[in-house]
């Protein structure tokens, strides 16, 4: 068996050490093992033949048959098979890695290049690439951990916990949590992974030419400490970091997939930056050519990853829906805006679907989920009914109707669709009557994703739990108070079940839960809301949309991709930003003696000083 290192490659259901791909127990490479295996088979032909079924002692099982048999095994069984004997080590390599994960804190691009040179067969069966982009800077993590543990410990004036007064709590736990985060941060900074080198990324894709799925994940890293995982989940808007870098990387990966002629069937990005969708539409369509063969698309836009100035609302919405239209053969679509840790439905701008989508239809669309959108009853109804022949599963999350009613929408869905499942989640609101509800679904179809591993789904559930905890902790603000009041006596869950039954035709048409709706409205003292759009005609709305979109397109004050070409690399930008924040005397929340000690041990100061040496060298190179 191989030696081990801290570097690992992930695939569905298992993790393997990178050195397992390099060196066997005897220190031989895969190629040497393969040659040795052939010699051993020839020398021990009689022994091998005797072990096989049948009377013909000259027969042996051909490698092709072994390969066919192993194609039916799961990854764990393939690994066990390879460990049985050095003769079998080479046979299972083509079935060994199913998912190649690029982690933010490892140099996996270099590892991929090494494997492609030395063990190319091991990449033959890779079907999925996952870019793990989850990141939280020091300032955010320090704030959360300091707040969490301040209640559990006594502190002196310097922010040092007083151990003798807290004998019932193990101080080492806090040290472990901080140390694990700082170790991760240090590795991330040293790895300095960049996926925006088009030449290098295209070459990588050429070695992964059987890939059918790409996923960008900005979820929580796989920490050993659940306390650290929960702390990460409590960071405000954890997906919003690194918008400009995410934009470059997303475009580079798409162009690399196109250049290497990869045939994608599934694509997912849980926090695509708004800047990506502000491109010229022709350029956007060209970038997304790999979408043309997609069967499944999950595309959530993070509006917090947007330029700091200028108006982008209509351009961003147009670009997001145009991106979805670049995949005309979809069977599954999950589209919307990232809700992050908190949700304020008042801030979502109304988008007339007829303006961004026209009458476009996905003929094979079976499963649809829309997140965090403000629409109107008429447009949404028309859009959904155009898919009546195929649509069977629908989820609406954080949906606001600025014109029309939810009753009218759900009644149309009941009559016009043949849904097998229907779910509502988050804040569901309309400008009609007293339709304002706040749900937190526990249904796996809503909370989990089939594209994620079990560990990733667990971390996503922690994010959801943190969102719930936020509402509990902030029960004086409107959203927190509203959710807690609706949750009392299980009323929100009861309403959710009745709405689903109504849409799925599992109750009588007269069973619209008006009584329960009014009861919930009374609980939160909600008397209804009149939208300013209600008295507008479609023609007036369309004219206003066109005029404002033209203004946005002419707005030269909007930050652009080109403006940011000369900025610092991401790891140096965050390192300097974090260190400067901590160095300011005005930031009392950054003072924590234990953190400072562990930060020094982790070598963060050395990285910070090195970042300026890097900047000086870069300037000297430019002068030359």
Automatic annotation (TrEMBL):
**InterPro entries per UniProt:** LRR_dom_sf (IPR032675)
User: Which stretches does the entry tag as region Disordered?
Assistant: 20-56
Show the taxonomic lineage.
Answer: Eukaryota, Fungi, Dikarya, Ascomycota, Pezizomycotina
Q: Where is the composition biased (Basic and acidic residues)?
A: 25-39
Q: Please identify the protein, giving its name as recorded.
A: F-box domain-containing protein
Which intervals carry biased composition (Polar residues)?
A: 43-56
Superkingdom, natural source: Eukaryota
């Amino acid at each position: 068996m191989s030696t081990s290192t801290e570097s690992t490659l992930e695939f569905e259901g298992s993790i393997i050490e990178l050195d397992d791909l390099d060196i066997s127990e005897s220190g031989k490479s895969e190629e040497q093992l393969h040659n040795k295996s052939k010699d051993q088979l020839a020398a021990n032909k009689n022994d091998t033949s005797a072990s096989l079924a049948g009377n013909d002692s000259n027969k042996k099982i051909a490698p092709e048959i072994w390969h066919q048999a192993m194609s039916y095994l799961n990854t764990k069984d393939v690994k066990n098979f390879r460990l049985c004997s050095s003769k079998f080590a080479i046979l299972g390599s083509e079935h060994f890695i199913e998912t190649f994960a690029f982690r933010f804190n490892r140099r996996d691009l270099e590892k991929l290049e090494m494997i492609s040179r030395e063990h190319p067969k091991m990449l033959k069966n890779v079907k999925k690439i996952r870019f793990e982009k989850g990141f939280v800077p020091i300032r955010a993590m320090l704030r959360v951990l300091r707040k969490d543990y301040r209640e559990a410990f006594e502190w002196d004036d310097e922010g040092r916990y007083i151990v003798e007064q807290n004998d019932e709590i193990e101080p080492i736990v806090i040290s472990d949590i901080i140390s694990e985060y700082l170790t991760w941060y240090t590795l991330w900074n040293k790895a300095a992974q960049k996926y925006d080198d088009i030449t290098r990324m295209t070459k990588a894709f050429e070695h992964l030419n059987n890939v059918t799925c790409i996923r960008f994940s900005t979820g929580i890293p796989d920490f050993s400490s659940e306390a650290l995982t929960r702390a990460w989940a409590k960071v405000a808007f954890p997906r919003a970091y690194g918008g400009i870098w995410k934009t470059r990387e997303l475009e580079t990966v798409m162009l690399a997939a196109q250049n290497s002629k990869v045939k994608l069937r599934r694509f997912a990005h849980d926090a695509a930056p708004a800047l990506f969708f502000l491109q010229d539409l022709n350029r956007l369509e060209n970038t997304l050519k790999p979408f043309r063969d997609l069967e499944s698309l999950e595309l959530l836009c993070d509006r917090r990853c947007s330029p700091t100035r200028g108006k982008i609302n209509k351009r961003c919405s147009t670009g997001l829906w145009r991106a979805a239209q670049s995949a005309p053969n979809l069977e599954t679509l999950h589209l919307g805006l990232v809700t992050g840790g908190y949700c304020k439905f008042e801030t979502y701008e109304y988008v007339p679907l007829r303006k961004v989508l026209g009458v476009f239809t996905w003929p094979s669309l079976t499963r649809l989920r829309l997140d965090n959108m403000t629409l109107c009853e008429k447009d949404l109804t028309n859009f959904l009914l155009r898919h009546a022949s195929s649509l069977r599963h629908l989820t609406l999350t954080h949906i606001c109707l600025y014109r029309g009613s939810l009753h009218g929408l759900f009644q149309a869905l009941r009559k016009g669709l043949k849904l097998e499942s229907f779910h509502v989640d988050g804040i569901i609101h309309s400008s009609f009557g007293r339709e304002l509800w706040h749900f937190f679904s526990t249904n796996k179809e809503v909370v989990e994703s089939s594209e994620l591993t079990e560990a990733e789904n667990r971390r996503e559930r922690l994010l959801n739990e943190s969102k719930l905890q936020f509402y509990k902790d902030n029960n004086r603000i409107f959203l927190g108070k509203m959710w807690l009041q609706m949750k009392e006596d299980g009323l929100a869950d009861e309403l959710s079940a009745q709405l689903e039954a109504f849409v799925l035709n599992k109750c009588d048409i007269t069973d619209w839960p008006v009584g329960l709706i009014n009861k919930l409205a009374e609980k939160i003292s909600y008397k209804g809301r009149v939208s300013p759009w209600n008295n507008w005609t479609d023609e007036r709305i369309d004219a206003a949309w066109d005029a404002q979109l033209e203004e946005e397109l002419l707005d030269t004050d909007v930050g652009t991709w080109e403006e940011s070409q000369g900025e610092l690399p991401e790891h140096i930008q965050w390192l300097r930003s974090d260190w400067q924040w901590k160095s300011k005397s005005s930031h009392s929340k950054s003072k924590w003696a234990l953190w400072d000690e562990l930060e020094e041990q982790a070598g963060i100061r050395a990285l910070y000083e090195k970042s300026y040496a890097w900047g000086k060298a870069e300037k000297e190179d430019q002068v030359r």
